């Protein structure tokens, strides 16, 4: 009988269920998009019911079509959009409000007030994060403050908080398990990454009752047996990690100095710093990369909010292209020094600027600027933002020994060549770019005993193509100076 690991990848715009064979090859995959809600300027919400039903449907479909004929799922992994916050009733399982998504900026002024009290260094020393609406704590607080009756119900222990992994686990286990893993906990602004525990002083600061919080497990652990998962009933969830950490794991960046960068809606660069929680002096985040056998491994992270979303905007907002794949031939026919800079600060700027109030702009337009220059500038913006992160890491005294890339945008060879050129570093694309789902499968497989060690997993990584820098230092510096000038004008 063929054996598989099922990975549930619950992302910002869609949910995927992917069946991996035990060598880490994709056997079957299903994906479903779900609606995004923008109830006010800067607000982004998901209906948790949509998230749950998209997960159910993709899992059912993949199980029915591909696993029906004698196949067996031996372990389940969950990976998820991080920080997104749900509060639900422990008895009914019903959410008390929509999920507030990581991109949501509604708590910006509250974050500003905390920063003006000088609290950021203290919060950062415990959590590795900055005070920003991005993280869960201020979103939880907003629900407690603004939804009628919720604070009282929370204090009585009637409600549960979770990031999406936790919400899905609760539903899959029929409301028995209220758990999360250390990577997801490390994105809440409530978790002390040094003690690996919820921090009572932070809970007090944000006014959040501890009784709301899930139990924090290793990333490879016994999360619970599935009882409400259709054909998955009887199998166990054995791996959980936030999607960027899962991508680092799937890219098998297990050694200190190894880094991955994922180019999906946003871009997230993560560098393994081993057992040291290095504190950045240049506004990068310190986070838990994974926790295995009770031992946390840490990472430095640069989070860019808008990467592939720029291409979606060029397609859907400006209608300059019909499909993302048209961007590659357009850029190939355009000199890199066309002089147009597109800064996609649609929802503010993330690392290393952390400016929630910045907004996007296009600079350097002339009478002969056309579609191809604007599209090329859109692709280049993703690479320049990665360069910003590389610079911040260098100022912290760190240079990645390898950069492995993944996510939807890495199908674009032009982007990866320009990335290598602007970074002045080699960029490696693996054969399997669904590394996020793969990471969750590897974690589950590790707990199931299918894989004996991280070294064994590292041996499964395969390179599809390496991109070597060919640009001169002079050209690189000149192009990047133009980007910096544009960003400073925002
Ligand atoms: N050939 C391409 N060139 C540039 N961007 C692309 C290409 N193909 C896909 N994209 C972009 O990649 C993103 C999709 O990547 P994906 O990893 O599926 O995102 P997410 O998981 O965040 O939803 C989209 O924003 C899309 O615009
Ligand atoms: O769902 P994605 O792939 O856009 O990832 C979102 C990140 O986890 C946010 O921190």
UniProtKB/TrEMBL annotation:
Does Nucleotide-binding count among this protein's keywords?
Answer: yes
Provide the binding site for glycerol.
82-83, 134, 243-244
Tell me which domain of life the UniProt entry assigns to the organism this sequence originates from.
Bacteria
Which reaction does this chain catalyze? glycerol + ATP = sn-glycerol 3-phosphate + ADP + H(+)
Show where the Carbohydrate kinase FGGY N-terminal domain sits.
4-250
Residues binding ADP, per UniProt: 12, 16, 265, 308, 408, 412
Q: Where does sn-glycerol 3-phosphate bind?
A: 12, 82-83, 134, 243
According to the record, the signal peptide region is none
Q: What does this protein do?
A: Key enzyme in the regulation of glycerol uptake and metabolism. Catalyzes the phosphorylation of glycerol to yield sn-glycerol 3-phosphate.
UniProt name for this protein: Glycerol kinase
Organism of origin is Marinobacter metalliresistant
Q: Could you tell me the gene encoding this protein?
A: glpK
């Amino acid at each position: 009988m063929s054996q598989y690991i099922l990975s549930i990848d619950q992302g910002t715009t869609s949910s995927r269920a992917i069946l991996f064979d035990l060598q880490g090859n994709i056997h079957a995959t299903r994906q479903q998009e779900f609606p995004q809600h923008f109830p006010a300027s800067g607000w982004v919400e998901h209906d948790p019911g949509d998230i749950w039903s998209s997960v159910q449907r993709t899992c059912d479909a993949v199980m029915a079509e591909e696993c029906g004929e004698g196949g067996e799922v031996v372990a389940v992994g969950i990976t998820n959009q991080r920080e997104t916050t749900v509060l639900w009733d422990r008895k009914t399982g019903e959410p008390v409000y929509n999920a507030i998504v990581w991109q949501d900026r509604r708590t910006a002024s509250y974050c500003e007030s905390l920063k003006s009290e000088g609290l950021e260094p203290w919060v950062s020393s415990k959590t590795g994060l900055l005070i920003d609406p991005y993280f869960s704590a201020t979103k939880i607080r907003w629900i407690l403050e603004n939804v009628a009756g919720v604070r009282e119900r929370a204090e009585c222990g009637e409600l549960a908080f979770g990031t999406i992994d936790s919400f899905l686990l609760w539903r899959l286990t029929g409301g028995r398990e209220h758990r999360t893993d250390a990577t997801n906990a490390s994105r809440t602004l409530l978790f002390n990454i040094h003690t690996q525990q919820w921090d009572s002083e932070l809970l007090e600061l944000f006014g959040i009752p501890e009784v709301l919080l899930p139990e924090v497990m290793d990333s490879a652990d016994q999360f619970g047996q599935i009882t409400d998962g259709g054909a998955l009933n009887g199998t166990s969830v054995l791996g959980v990690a936030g999607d960027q950490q899962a991508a680092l794991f799937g890219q098998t960046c297990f050694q200190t100095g190894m880094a991955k960068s994922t180019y999906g809606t946003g871009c997230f660069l993560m560098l393994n710093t081993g057992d040291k929680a290095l504190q950045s002096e240049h506004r990068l985040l310190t986070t838990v990369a994974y926790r295995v056998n009770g031992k946390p491994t840490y990472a430095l992270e640069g989070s860019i909010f808008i990467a592939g979303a720029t291409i979606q905007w060029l397609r859907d907002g400006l209608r300059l292209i019909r499909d993302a794949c048209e961007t590659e031939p357009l850029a190939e026919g355009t000199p890199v020094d066309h002089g147009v800079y597109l800064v996609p600060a649609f929802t503010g700027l993330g690392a290393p600027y952390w400016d929630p109030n910045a907004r996007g702009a296009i600079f350097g337009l002339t009478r002969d600027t056309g579609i191809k220059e604007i599209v090329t500038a859109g692709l280049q913006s993703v690479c320049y933002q990665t360069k910003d992160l590389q610079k911040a890491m260098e100022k912290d005294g760190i240079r990645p020994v390898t950069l492995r890339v993944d996510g939807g945008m890495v199908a674009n060879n032009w982007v990866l060549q320009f990335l290598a050129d602007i970074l002045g570093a080699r960029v490696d694309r693996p054969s399997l770019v669904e590394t996020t789902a793969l990471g969750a499968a590897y974690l589950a497989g590790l707990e199931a005993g299918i894989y004996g060690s991280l070294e064994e997993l590292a041996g499964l990584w395969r390179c599809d193509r390496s991109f070597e820098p060919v640009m001169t230092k002079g050209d690189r510096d000149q192009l990047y100076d133009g980007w910096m000038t544009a960003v400073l004008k925002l």
